[in-house]
Design goal:
alpha+beta, 2 domains, seven-stranded antiparallel sheet, three-stranded antiparallel sheet, 10 strands, 44% helix, elongated
Amino acid sequence: MKRYFFTIILITFSAFTNAQIQLSDSAKISLMTCGPWSGAVYAYYGHTALRVQDDSTHLDTVFNYGFFDSSQPNFIYHFVRGETDYILGTTSFEVFISEYIYKKVAVYEQELNLTQPEKQQLWEALYINQLPENRGYRYNYFYDNCSTRPRDMVEKFVGGKIIYPPTKEGQTYRDILHECLQPYPWNKFGIDLIIGAGADYPIDVRAKMFIPSYLMGSFEGATVVKNDSVSYPLIKETTTVLDAANKGNSKDEQSVFSPIVVAFALLFITILVSVVQYIKWNKTQLPKIYDTILFAIYGIGGFVLFSLMFFSEHPATNPNWNFVWMNIFALIFAVLFWVKPMKNVVNIYHFINFAVLTLFLLLWWLVPQQLPVATIPFSMSLWLRSGTNVFMLTKRKKVNKRYVSSKYMKAGWGQ
């Protein structure tokens, strides 16, 4: 769905020299749907484009809302903030299909059931939209992307209301993303971390069309209603242009290091470090070094979540309950662990962190956000380290109190 290019190649055809070109009665406008590709993160979701074909004018052009200029200044900064601008680019069908022949993924073509005037209007609108002054738009992965844009253009120029067939009830944005990312557990886990509670509300048929395969399925069974007595299918014919020859696209990631495995491995290491801390009675620097690394990593993740929640235009990132266990405060205290004058502040932090994470783990099933199961062992690592530090502090205070008590001193004097 997302198509990042280091260079944007815009091919201008001779047919575009005249904006008033008239399509023939045999002209076709089709929705092109490309299957997912495992070779790049942006391609996991598939892709959508519109094809205008007219043999009488030698016109065969693909309008593609997925072009993106990664060479723009401060690209990473704007990408994180959700200020990414996409453009409508045009290529010949030959160039368009060659990319998917190379990738060996499926491509489907759905010819739209349009009248000649509707085709002409849609063609002219696409032509105007691809002009340099009009082609840019602010990309939004849920509401305004390279799948929803073609849908909006078709809806605008179809001479009637499109009635889409019902889909599975109760689906959310997160559910649909999970379907696309099922073979990629780490990408799925990452999405679950940065997408907040706003992605867990049921969505309607049109909202699901942010994914190309859902748009294709909805178009396939859609009906155009012009009045009480006139209705007809939106799609005239569906053709498989390319079969999915790349079998690797359907395979899961061949790795035993899934998020849940890594999470429990980290928890096991954390338990060992905590045991060493208890046995050595804080006479080794290992626990402090481990805490610094652990809390710093979690804190960096928390910084990313904090930025997405409060300083980005990305949808459904705030509120995000992952911020309870992966927050920016961990990064701050990873530094303060080594500042002796802040020892009491660090102890207070461990107590608060332990208490908050205890409530989070006990009420995990009641959190109004779908959290990955790996969240439990990952958060338990922080919970255990803060808890161990609180326990060691309490024990140390009791021992010190015992040594300074009058009863102990009297016993030492033989009284």
